Amino acid sequence: MTHPSRISGHLRPNRRSVLKAGLGMTLAGAGLALGAAPALAAQRGTPLCDQPGDSASRQGLGSGDLCIPYHREHDNTWGYVFGDAWTGIHQTGDYIGSPVMLAQDTFDSSGAAPISFTWALPTGGQAGKLFDYTSRADNGYGFEISRIPNDCIEFGGRTYLQYTSVYTWGVEGDPPWEDGHDGSLMSGVAYSDDYGVTWTDYDYHWDGDHRGVNQSMYGMWSFAGIDPDGWLYIFSKRWNGTHRNSADGGAVQLFRIQPDDFRAGNFGAQQNWAYVDGSWQWTTSETPPSVILSGNNTGEFSVKRIGATYCMSYFDVVLGAIVTRTAPRPDAPWSMPVPQITALEVPNLYGGYIHPGSASATALTLMVSQWSGRDYYGVRQFDGINP
């Protein structure tokens, strides 16, 4: 689990190498069971890349992780945003970079057919890095290794991608790791007005660890979607892509913003869900959001409105499991976490992104990443998840 891979002559240990060995056994010892999937769910861990001749390879992506799904509403297709990716399987061939995007014409929410990628962005030819920056270099903000996507959404003819710029993964070949620090450089939002071909960064960035703001609660975002009330709801938390952030208690916060303000980059217009003077209320941006959830360290997370229900999925680093929760509203109490997929079923798992085209709030499709050294580095599809 500590075997490094290479990027342009530099050692780049996979960020999943820091997962504790045997996390799944903690679940077994605690008596926690796998979440049950409906009998009709066809995909229960189907690999979507890192297999010879698969649909991802045909688009030029041999291996990669995350595979964050979003709805391309302008033509009713689906996009999938990967993190670090290679042209060959098992992290071989050329390093493509991060983020990378593949797309699909039609998604089968029943699970009868696995996801099959139809084309690649940004050119429609072979997969390529979406953003114009240099890995392991200072691109004007400080040294950064990679820009890792956290979520993507399209509305009003524009695509938005939120990312974290990583300063260190804390392993051999990287800048030194400091215990209690999250290893980020900054977070940002990029947008595309041609549906993923070209990207522009908003001028404003949220400073991270190595720009003086360790443990920023704006490190990782998930776009829950535009609610019928007209607000775009966004959940955010500390960056914990390393899965070893000892200062991260799993805290999550909530804010909302009008779509037109978001498009204009008027991020100061956000309203924050905060506990003030003995009650929860929506406040102006001058009052910071309060923590709505906390507990075990959380890595990658995802929140989506499926039907009339808000569904949350995240990687519980302590349990070594993908867990889910639900709520009737973004600002309502959330259900207790339910372990759905554990390291007993998928060793070295992480991620757990909710497909916005899921069949229903009781039959979710989750995208779960796995890294097993040189044996497997990819994404698996799970359907029929009942949170």
From TrEMBL:
Pfam family, one: DUF4185
Annotated InterPro entries: DUF4185, TAT_signal
Domain named DUF4185: residues: 52-382
Stretch forming the signal peptide: 1-41
Source superkingdom: Bacteria
Keywords, ordered alphabetically: Signal
Name the UniProt record assigns to this protein: DUF4185 domain-containing protein
Biological classification of the source: Bacteria, Bacillati, Actinomycetota, Actinomycetes, Kitasatosporales
